[in-house]
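Quick log. Single chain, no ligands specified.
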Amino acid sequence: MTTNTAVTEPQVLPAGLGARGIDHLVVAVNDLDAGRDVWQALGFTLTPRAQHPWGTANHLAQLDHSFVELLGLDDAAKIKPAGRNGFSFGAFNRDFLKKHQGASMLVLESTDADADIADFAAAGLDTFSRFDFERMAGQPGGGQARVAFSLAFTRPTALKTAGFFTCQNHEPEHFWHAEWQRHANSAVGIDEVTLVAPDPADYHIFLSRFTGVREIRASSSGISIATPRGRVAVVTPVAFRYLYGEDSLAVVPKTLEIRGITFAVADFGQSAAALVAGGLKVADRHDRLLVGPAAALGLAVAFKAEARTN
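-> predicted structure:
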């Protein structure tokens, strides 16, 4: 692997565009109950099953202000196509699952979804109407409480293999709970979300504008952006197999896809013990514990005893 060098996007970003950290990763699975069992075997504590009004359902693995959303279809009849200038979360993930399971969408944090849409438009990115929704969420002590969100979608032009949006959380006191952030594998945060593309440099402008981070680390292996919470990297297929194992990429993507996630853990030994207890095949490579996509439903998963990028 080559040494990284810093590059800065030559085009000027709009003045209002601020850096956004990783909020969550959407992982779409064909069978949500089976997906729950796999992620529990990975050592994660999951929130109770919740339904969306548009026909999907989820479990969450909460970390320190970031999370993984394990998503499945709940009632396909409720999924509607996108309206005029809109984006259909349900339809996108339904269509994604027709091809394969795995990470379908990368989501960044937001404090103002309207401002994000304006920033994306000023930066020349595709934009869609703001999407608002609410649902009831189970609480650790029992009962339910309202949670509500505003989403701002964007995308590299016409890309259908990965989704991108920001998420403004209007009821954080009902959403985040310490009880659901304690995991058998000792995971504390998302260290990196890893995407794969034949030519990673093709996406450096889009990702710089999406994250609001101007400085990019670049090498022959790909590009990496240090957001306020975790890294977003796009690497070549060869580099991905180097990072996540030879069996981590059976088919080389023809365009940009989200294929891997690395978690920061508090106790590496505890992580290893949890994965073994879960009955998973684990590899130790480059000081990381690896679980391949065949076991983790289409997503390569890694654990490393290292501080998260802040």
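Helices lie at 32-41, 89-97, 113-122, 172-175, 204-211, 237-244, 268-277.
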